[in-house]
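Page header: ASSEMBLY MODEL / two components / 555 residues total.
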Amino acid sequence: MLKDITLGQYFPGNSFIHRLDPRTKLICTVIYIAALFVAKSYITYGVLLLTLVLCVAVSKIKASAMLKGMKPLALIIIFTAILNLFYIKGGTELFSFWVLTVTTEGIKTACFMVIRIMMLISGTFLLTYTTTPMSLTDGLELLLNPLKKIRVPVHEFSMMMSIALRFIPTLIEEADKISNAQKARGADFETGKLTERAKALLPLLVPLFVSAIRRADELAIAMESRCYHGGEGRTRMKKLSLKLSDLMTMVFSLLFLAGIIILARFGF
Amino acid sequence: MPTIKTQALTHIYSQGSPFESIALENINIEISQGEFVGLIGHTGSGKSTFVQHLNGLLLPTGGRVLLDGVDLNSSKKLRHEMRFKVGLVFQYPEYQLFEDTVYKDISFGPRNMKLSKAEIDERVREAAGFVGVPEEIFEKSPLELSGGQKRRVAIAGVIAMRPSVLVLDEPTAGLDPEGCESILKNICDYHEATGATVILVSHSMEDIARYASRLIVFVDGHAAMDGSPEEIFSQADRLRTIGLDVPVVTDIASRLKQLNIDVPDCCYTISQLKSAILSLKKEGAPC
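Prediction written out in full:
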């Protein structure tokens, strides 16, 4: 059950999107999210959806993988839809019962919100699916480098992030093992009232935390014994370099954002 | 009726996805009550996957697993009950300890069985006795104990459910020789005292040779060999092509044979070889 989590997962490949510099992908994702929030009409949403589908097609990532990743967030998506459906008033009233009223405007907003969230998730998934966690944090570190001037510990942050991402699969595997071991002793994680179920998680969480702390300790010793001393003077084995294709992608994304803003301005 | 019976048991991980891999294929095994079975095989040969089918933690993707004649796949409630009948001790079980005292941790299984307080107390003390956990450390935190003691507490936690089948997945991995020895001895004592079926997964041919009365060898998801230690260890060449070894004693015996010294074919424990050599000496054969 826990193995189904696709957060931070990377799908190996060699598509145009896979080959882009992580910085380019990060910037483009931010631009895409910005455009998503500017968009308000069928046309702009349509253009954004088309771009997303195009990017996914180019990356050769299966649509099923995208949808699978959305599964854990289904509850949030449904909740948003219901909330918008009943709370947005406007347009013509379709039907109402008790205190709930559904209007045309409500349906429209609910649909837009759901599409927006799903596109938001897909866009960021495309980033993590096509970029290894290591190059992602490398890219992030380089992008945030200017902040070092105002004494933000950028290197430390990115190291923390790489370690966290690196250990997600390890911890998932560990949680699976521990939960199996406790199930073998008759632990029941699936039935009972909410409070009972929360209590039943204790036999899983305590060993998981204990082992996470132990791992952190061991990792620190391993890093220190290899003379890790922070980012000062540290060199890279794989130097990131921006190619022409990266620059063109970025320029195109910016123009794309500008186009969406102009469209939204003129009421489309 | 055999306690455990598998019929064409097959397990395929991530079936239908590109990561699909066959872990077990067409396993047909019968294990009777009171047997001491050793499972050997390489890492990735399917041993661990197999043992997780015995209490329904994994469900077969093909075939059936019968426990006392009942199909484990038939209901969820049944599987929950069967967990108490088939006690499974995982690899490195000390990582599952979570309670604040040793006593409470051992009693986790019996509490899940919804037993009375007196019954739980009796079982905890009995289980602790079997694996050599002294009562003085009952109120200590399990995290304060040494590695070997933690392992004992974890095994006691499973034994406290009084399972009629005890499955142990490499219970001695990572322990010092003395610790290995005494834990195996404890398990053997439990086997003799309760008449429970014991299934021991191990890499150590020596351990398996000494305690098990039957060996099953797993190769790439198949139960390739099944028989008494004599039968299995006499096929040393076949074991070596699989990438496994025979106990050192068996190796010594076969080399003695090459030197034309008449020792029996199937020596696999030190005491067997010792008595064989001593009897030769009495006969006055050249040594």
